[in-house]
Amino acid sequence: MEKAESNPLKVFVYGTLKPGEINYDHYCQGRVLHAQAAIMIGQLYDLPFGYPAMTVGNSLVYGFLLSFADPAILTHLDQLEEYDPNRPTEQNEYVRVAAEVFDLNHRSLGQAWVYQMDKTLVNKLGGILLPQGRWGSPTGSQAEYRL
């Protein structure tokens, strides 16, 4: 995933980094080349802290595929998600992994980075399964997804 606009860095977001949510303006506004409603395969949970967690699973998780010209954005997103690639996985809140992302018609959009949480940690934190695969804060914009 390189720096050129012809090959932007892609990140799938499903929580506070979505357009209209609390962290979008600070971390993404003015840096995003393109935002597209998208889905990934996993499980989505609401955590009692005002943000969600995605785990490995077999359900649809709805969010946005954000494209960035500058790969340095990952340093900022890693800090927000409390992920450090140099420490043991179990010491991170989230882990950044590459996974396949799809448009809303289930056509592959290729690989993108996504921050996932271990299901054991989700359970320990009191995560509540969101079977519809969508999360939105009470104050964020409820972006529409066309199915």
TrEMBL record:
<protein>
    <submittedName>
        <fullName>Gamma-glutamylcyclotransferase</fullName>
    </submittedName>
</protein>
<feature type="domain" description="Gamma-glutamylcyclotransferase AIG2-like">
    <location>
        <begin position="11"/>
        <end position="135"/>
    </location>
</feature>
<dbReference type="InterPro" id="IPR013024">
    <property type="entry name" value="GGCT-like"/>
</dbReference>
<dbReference type="InterPro" id="IPR009288">
    <property type="entry name" value="AIG2-like_dom"/>
</dbReference>
<dbReference type="InterPro" id="IPR036568">
    <property type="entry name" value="GGCT-like_sf"/>
</dbReference>
<dbReference type="Pfam" id="PF06094">
    <property type="entry name" value="GGACT"/>
</dbReference>
